[in-house]
Amino acid sequence: MNRLFQFLKLVAVFLLCFELSRLYFLIYHASLLETSFLNAWAMTSISGFFLDLSTVAWCLAPILLLLIVEGILRKPIPAWLFKLVIGIEVFLIFAITISDPELYRQWGNKFNNQVLVYISHPKEMAISSGAVNWGKTVLFALVLGLCFWFLAYVLFKILNKKKQFSVQYTIADVLLTGLAFIMLRGGIGVATISQSSAIYSDKSIENAAAINSFWNALYYIFNDTESIYGDHYKVASDAVVEVSLREQLAADSVRFDISDKKDINVMVVMLESFTASGSQYFSGYNNCMPYLDKIASENLSFMQCYASGDRTEKGLVTVLSGYPAQPSSSIIVFPDKMAKLEGIGKVLKERGYSNSFYYGGDAEFASMKAYLLLQGIPTIVDKKSFSKEELNSKWGAHDANLYNKVLSDHRNKRAPFFTTILSLSSHEPFDVPHQSSDLPKDEWYGYKNSLRYADLALYEFLKACEKEPWYDNTLILLVADHGHDIGLSDKAYFGKEKYHIPLVVLGGALKQTLKGVKIRQVVSQTIVPSLLLDAMDMPYTGFKWQTGINNIDGFAQYHYNNGFGRVDADQEAIYDNSCKSFIYKGDIRDSADIKQKGLYFQQYLIDDFMKK
Fold first, then answer.
1. 419/348 Cα distance (integer angstroms)
2. What DSSP state is assigned to residue 196?
3. Average pLDDT value over all residues in the chain
4. CB under 8 Å, gap of 24 or more: what pairs does 361-364 form?
5. β-sheet bridge partners, residue 479
6. Model-level pTM?
7. What is the mean pLDDT of residues 27-40?
8. What is the mean pLDDT of the segment spanning 579-605?
9. Is the Cα dihedral 255, 258, 262, 268 positive or negative?
10. So what CATH class is 260-553?
11. Residue spans per domain, the chain
12. DSSP β-bridge partners for residue 558
């Protein structure tokens, strides 16, 4: 009985750790709750209890193993070993507890395998954290740190009782280990416990709080993408889904020719976090990019373009390969899969183009360099190519220095060329050498001010390009890598506003008849390769993940951590795979159709990803 009481005390203290973690998450995001705080706390605690219990079992496993070894050896194991195990476990629980609320605030999800993409680049992770509310986080960390230290002390005191060794104690330890195993897997049934066991609401924030943060982190650390994508994404037979996708992505019979020149140069400028919601021209919400608005109004602009994902490396793949972002994974971190992707660079390299990529940061970040090389882009210019004085951003070189480098290298550039530029100044922590006096000094000032700086640097670069001899035979495409929150009220967290991005085509090779033309059809960011290859009168049959500009049934589908959004001319839908929630705006009679098409698109995409 003594051993049982000791076991129950350990379970109770670990449960208290996880309840403290949940309470912190709810306090951090109290403003997002649509029910009372106490009700949310009660419901998330009840719904997440068995997942908490499973996590307790994970924590107890090494402790029980040590106790069994003690019983077999009939001598106590050094106390420091128990202290080490408890210390590591409580510290990891504390670290996840502190980081998860901020991850959710910025990305809309807790710790997952996307975070693991960035862990190999700790410096960049630290820079990104510049947007964290440090005052709030540090204050909570101090308070929580003391609480977790006390709980670790209690755990050790429970274990540090006078040791007794007997056959009965050893048998008890083995039986308790068996009980812990049952707790770990969530029962004695066939199916083991998963995050879905804690999901009870159609509100993402409540489900996120119910899911044990430590269990969630362990799951993504120990499971690869093949394990993450299970049959729950399959909603219909492969044959049915394939027919649906063929209809959804039917190719245009009419070309959209944006240039009448031959062997043109192409320059793609990917603008970090340039949300359309920061533009008066594209959305009317803000005036953070007046120069882009001016450029867009004088050239060919796409008023309803939507990003495919919400991270830079996903945007890079979408823009250059036309391949959609996936939920719960990023193809760029799977070399064998990304090597099979089509790409503008591959096509143009075969046509004799000189391909290059320019970035002011570290091109090896998130496997971007490997992807670019596999895409037939051998010349990669990143922060290593800049002088120490030019590296004036925490990420590397600010946009002005980046654009100057591009201009310098293109003075004697061999034509035809294909150049991709990725900006970075409007990335967290928004430390730009510019201060806008007319923007409100609210919590979004840093981001909006960085857009102003990046906008001015872009404008000066484009004006300088006009003076270059190659400009008259060059198409320049401006597109955001992804959108960004900008503080709009009464908008869904994963709503279309977050994914709405600018897309503009300009340059001397653009047809004069298209200057000042607005394309109002809904298009996806995946349209970039086919749009450019069509302009060069080159086949683009390998790029199938978009509807054409002339398609009246055009749509854009984007994917976030574990769900998707879908937009067309009259409808908007958001679907969450975890809780099966469905948010819809439009004619209610069409809601079932758009949901089904979105689920089919997602299934087809995941199957395609898995087969690569």
1. 11
2. G
3. 89
4. 361/124, 361/395, 361/396, 361/397, 361/424, 362/121, 362/124, 362/396, 364/121
5. 270, 503
6. 0.80
7. 90
8. 95
9. negative
10. alpha beta
11. 2-223, 260-553
12. 565
